[in-house]
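To the wet lab folks,

You asked to see what we're planning to order before we commit. Fair enough. Below is the target structure as tokens, and below that is the sequence we designed to fit it. If anything looks off to you, flag it before the synthesis order goes out.
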């Protein structure tokens, strides 16, 4: 049963393995075909799948008329920071600073939109669903990995300079380096000032939304050759989201 409707779209949680497989197929199109990621494993079947799919809730945004899946993402609820090591992000970042986080947390990941569906209502519906999920579970922190396409940082220097200047995580929550290959942008960019227009042009849309919500990032990006991306750990403390933004998300 749909959680709600928005315009041409309905939003619901996956109910069975067939739903999850549909999400994995859309993820394959977005992350594997769309990024030139490495082949192998479930990818040979046209799926983007891993062991965490079985322990996550999968949100589906579908076109009401056709039933076509146009957007999906998965969410892993954690009782508090003591479970942070279970997360996908913890495979790439040392998140021990978050182990004492006292409130419920949710990792949101594998967010993607079908390339043929760029209607803004798709994104609004997705964020409305995320907001409802977070509110229902009284979540204190939403987190995940935000990806830049490709593994070369040159095109994103202004975006990284902006992250360094305004959006590095508070010291008490700051992730430390764990992955073997990283780009330490906060240290390497020094006093570089960002060109704001260029920075926002090259900032991933999902990350832009996190930042508008008051989100923060790690001081380094992981170089992920498997998915052909650079990604930064991203956290949003729900209590710090601007009230006007919260109202807009709940209206969605």
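Sequence we intend to order:
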């Amino acid at each position: 049963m749909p959680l709600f409707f928005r315009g041409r779209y309905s939003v619901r949680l996956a109910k069975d393995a067939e739903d999850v497989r549909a999400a994995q197929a859309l993820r394959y199109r977005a992350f594997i075909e769309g990024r030139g990621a490495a082949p192998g494993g479930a990818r040979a079947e046209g799926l983007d799948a891993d062991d965490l799919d079985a322990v996550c809730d999968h949100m589906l945004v579908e076109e009401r008329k056709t039933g076509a899946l146009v957007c999906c993402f998965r969410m892993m609820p954690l009782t508090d920071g003591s479970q942070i090591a279970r997360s996908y992000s913890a495979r790439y970042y040392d998140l021990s600073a978050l182990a004492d986080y006292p409130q419920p947390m949710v990792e949101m990941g594998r967010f993607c939109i079908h390339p043929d569906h760029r209607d803004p209502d798709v994104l609004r519906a997705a964020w409305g669903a995320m907001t409802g999920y977070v509110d229902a579970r009284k979540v204190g922190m939403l987190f995940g990995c935000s990806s830049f396409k490709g593994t070369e940082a040159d095109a994103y220097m202004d975006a990284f300079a902006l992250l360094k200047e305004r959006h590095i995580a508070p010291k008490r929550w700051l992730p430390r380096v764990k992955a073997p290959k990283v780009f330490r942008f906060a240290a390497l960019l020094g006093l570089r000032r960002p060109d704001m227009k260029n920075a926002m042009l090259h900032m991933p849309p999902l990350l832009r939304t996190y930042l508008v919500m008051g989100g923060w990032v790690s001081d380094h990006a992981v170089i992920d050759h498997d998915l052909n991306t650079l990604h930064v750990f991203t956290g949003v403390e729900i209590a710090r989201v601007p009230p006007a933004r919260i109202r807009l998300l709940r209206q969605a």
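Structural context that might help your review: The chain has a mean pLDDT of 93. The chain has one domain: 4-251.

Thanks,
Computational group
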